[in-house]
Design brief:
Layout (H helix, E strand, L loop, with lengths): L1 H22 L11 H9 L1 E6 L2 H5 L20 H10 L4 E7 L28 H12 L2 E6 L12 H17 L5 E4 L4 E4 L6 E4 L8 H11 L4 E4 L24 E2 L7 H6 L6 E2 L2 E6 L17 H11 L4 E8 L8 H17 L10 E4 L23 E2 L7 E20 L7 E10 L2 E8 L6 E20 L4 E8 L9 E4 L4 E5 L6 E5 L10 E2 L4 E2 L4 E9 L4 E2 L3 E5 L7 E2 L19 E2 L8 E19 L11 E9 L6 E7 L10 E20 L7 E2 L1 E6 L1
Parallel strand pairs: 1-2, 1-11, 2-3, 3-4, 4-7, 10-11
Antiparallel strand pairs: 5-6, 8-9, 12-14, 13-18, 14-17, 14-18, 15-16, 15-17, 19-20, 20-23, 21-22, 21-24, 24-25, 24-26, 27-29, 28-33, 29-32, 29-34, 30-31, 30-32
Helix pairs in contact: 4-5, 6-7, 9-10
Bound molecules: beta-L-fucopyranose (FUL).
The site of beta-L-fucopyranose has 6 residues, from loops.
Length: 695
């Protein structure tokens, strides 16, 4: 009897320990997000707003002495801003309440340099109140950007300023309800008004602000907040090292608590970092942050916004997209239109998760062989369930089988980051014509990773994790057939004659002709650079296999090849960018003397010229040195030169597209473009491309 009892107890303990093993979830691996970071990450997309005295002075950075009387928006309606943001799919707003000029958008007790002394609403206005109220009304979260650098304050650089800064922070974090994020920009010292001193002041940004104590204050006043800081002291979120609108394809949500944070750590995170510091991509819908009328035709297009979306939210970051407000207090209609259209494209792209329609979904390894951690959890629409593998099982595959061939061009995958970020590398394969073909690959996943690839029709899809820091914990998988953005493709020819054709979207195929005939989906499919020589006319379309729709036709006539062209007298290797056929590479004279500045090209043969083309470097944000006034000379021997064209490239600043100038036919082997004046008023002159027009 006793024996039986012992055996029974043994059996019971075996069963219960087996049960325990069966249901125990994986242990967290490495650093994990806290609740505030988790809530912030799930917002994914929110707005930035830049508005202030700079809006009226057309400056990116105010000096700190700008006339307060300029601030008088006549049609400001914060509710309308927030409505647009909500319609755009955004979940919050961060208002730049004080930029570097020190002008405060709320009636702060601690300074006279604020809206309270401006004509707007006779000094009774409070923009922080209006925006935070509108956010409450429309269900968006509210955040503030308070610039630590203040070019107005006489005490900037002394300990008194830190008290002032904290007083302002206390006003903001006490009087306006819940604040989800506070933004402490990294710009820190230099020239400024400083209460009339008009001098340059430098501070040590690692020590001057005493961030640790400021953080304590912030967290005490707003326990649910996340702190952004690109300065020396680690906060809750990190900058990605660029304002261009992208983070690295590899993006770890980790940094080390101590030590320097060079650019590559900001951009890619740190694989084995000891702290959870996820990435936020901040970028403006226009080149600059404040409104400048000259940028009205430089608003990011829907395709550019979609690239930004995939390069931020699709790469384990959040997206903080800026609206520069106009002097009348409104969002420009182009900015509104594009951001709303982007929201429609996002909605349509991710409307139907085809993986949820699978016939079968199975994995090569499931933790404890228990359905609790089974592959089906990745398509159950529940973000708290996941597919997990056994401890130490760092590679595995998950296969989705459809009832019928299914077309898709997007893959979405999410790790259950509450248990840490783990995956280092993965691939995606499609079963097409009875064989497995690799269609995409990626490195890190994190909270969310989205891959784009040309549309593929398959009966099965296989997701393979090929490397991971620990066992796998995948919470969600999506396959989508995103409707194509069918814009005419871009056709480029390199100096050696290779033609490249680029689509503004990933998904549609490109078809082309070289004989002037109309391209159709029966024409040649573009698979890579096409070698061409001399004269050729390239026509191309993009085509979406799902909707069977094509884009308008793009046409480029290439007349002569620039194969033998040489830029005379320039040793800098990058000078070849001027002839490489790629509009996004550019070259500047390295050590410009004084204008006029010449660029001389030997074409290697004598040609009959009837004109020339100049494409400036398309970036008006950072002093690009676009040529505005020019002379163009030709020569047969590089000794005797003839002036064949002169004048200005009108409106090049606002619209920096290829400038084409014609002249009467001239025989020439050498050409010289002389820059007489430029947009930046210094001696900086740059070029993206130079070409000629022949008979
Ligand atoms: C930068 C600032 O200097 C810009 O003016 C802008 O506010 C941007 C968001 O941060 O560092």
């Amino acid at each position: 009897m006793k024996k039986l009892f012992v055996m029974g107890a043994l059996l019971l303990s075996m069963v219960s320990s087996a049960c325990f093993a069966n249901t125990a979830p994986p242990k967290p691996f490495g650093p994990t997000p806290n609740e505030n970071q988790m809530a912030w990450q799930e917002m994914e997309y929110y707005a930035f707003v830049h508005f202030g005295l700079n809006t009226y002075t057309d400056q990116p950075w105010g000096y700190g002495n700008e006339d307060i009387n300029l601030f008088n928006p006549t049609e400001l309606d914060a509710r309308k801003w927030v409505r647009i943001m909500k319609d755009a799919g955004m979940k919050g707003v961060i208002l730049t309440v004080k930029h570097h000029s020190g002008f405060a958008l709320w009636p702060s007790k601690y300074t006279e340099y604020s809206v309270k002394n401006s004509p707007w609403k006779n000094g009774k206005g409070d923009l922080v109140r209006e925006v935070s109220d509108a956010c409450k009304e429309y269900g968006l979260k509210f955040g503030v950007y308070l610039s630590p650098w203040d070019r107005n304050r006489a005490d900037y650089g002394t300990p008194e300023y830190i008290t002032y800064f904290r007083n302002q922070l206390t006003e903001l974090l006490t009087n306006y309800g819940p604040i989800f994020e506070v933004w402490f920009d990294g710009a820190h010292g230099g020239g400024g008004y400083y209460g009339g001193a008009n001098e340059s002041r430098m501070i040590d940004r690692a020590t001057y602000y005493d961030w640790q104590n400021t953080y304590k204050l912030v967290r005490k006043l707003q326990p649910n907040i996340v702190i952004w800081n690109d300065g020396g002291v680690r906060a809750d979120l990190r900058w990605v090292g660029t304002e261009g609108g992208w983070v690295g394809e590899t993006n770890w949500s980790l940094l080390n608590a101590k030590g320097d944070v060079p650019w590559n750590m900001l951009h890619f995170g740190v694989e084995n970092g000891d702290s959870w510091v996820p990435a936020e991509v901040n970028t403006s819908i226009r080149p600059e942050w404040f409104y400048h009328p000259s940028e009205d035709d430089r608003v990011k297009t829907v395709s550019q916004l979609m690239d930004t979306y995939y390069n931020s939210i699709g790469r384990n970051a959040t997206l903080l997209l800026n609206f520069p407000i106009m002097p009348n207090g409104q969002i420009h209609k182009t900015d509104e239109k594009n951001v709303i259209e982007m929201a429609r494209v996002v909605k349509d792209s991710f409307a139907v998760n085809l993986a949820e329609k699978a016939k079968k979904i199975e994995a090569t390894n499931v933790r404890s062989n228990n359905n609790l951690f089974g592959a089906a959890n990745t398509v159950d629409g529940n973000k708290e369930t996941y597919w997990a593998t056994d401890d130490n099982q760092t590679t595995a595959s998950l296969t989705i089988e459809f009832k019928k061939p299914t077309t898709f061009n997007r893959f979405l995958v999410q790790e259950y980051i509450r248990l840490g970020q783990r995956v280092k590398a993965f691939t995606l394969e499609a079963f097409v014509d009875n064989t497995w073909q690799e269609i995409a690959q990626g490195t890190t996943i994190g909270y969310k990773r989205i891959l784009r690839f040309p549309s593929v029709s398959a009966t099965k899809v296989r997701f393979n994790v090929t490397d991971s820091k620990s066992s796998l914990v995948i919470s969600n998988i999506g396959l989508y057939d995103a409707p194509a953005l069918l814009n005419a493709p871009q056709i480029l020819r390199s100096q050696n004659g290779e033609v490249t054709i680029k689509s503004s979207d990933v998904g549609p195929y490109i078809y082309y002709t070289l004989d002037g005939s109309k391209p159709t989906p029966k024409s040649k499919k573009y698979t890579g650079p096409i070698p061409t020589d001399e004269k050729v006319e390239v026509r191309a379309i993009t085509h979406d296999v799902s909707s069977k729709k094509s884009s308008p036709v793009a046409v480029e006539h290439f007349v002569i090849s620039r194969k033998n062209w040489k830029i005379s007298g320039e040793k800098d290797e990058k000078v070849s960018y001027v002839l490489d056929g790629n509009p996004s590479t550019h070259w500047y004279h390295p050590d410009p003397k004084k204008l006029p500045i010449d660029l001389v090209i030997d074409m290697g043969e004598t040609l009959n010229l009837t004109g020339f083309k100049y494409l400036p470097h398309d970036d008006t944000m950072w002093n690009p040195g676009l040529i505005t006034h020019y002379e163009f000379y030709v020569s047969l021997d590089n000794v005797e030169w003839k002036l064949v064209s002169q004048g200005e490239f009108s409106n090049i600043k606002n619209n920096p597209v290829t400038q084409v100038k014609s002249f009467d036919s001239e025989k020439a082997r050498y050409i010289k473009l002389r820059a007489l004046q430029n947009t930046s008023g210094n001696n900086r002159v740059g070029y993206a491309e130079i070409d000629v027009v022949t008979m």
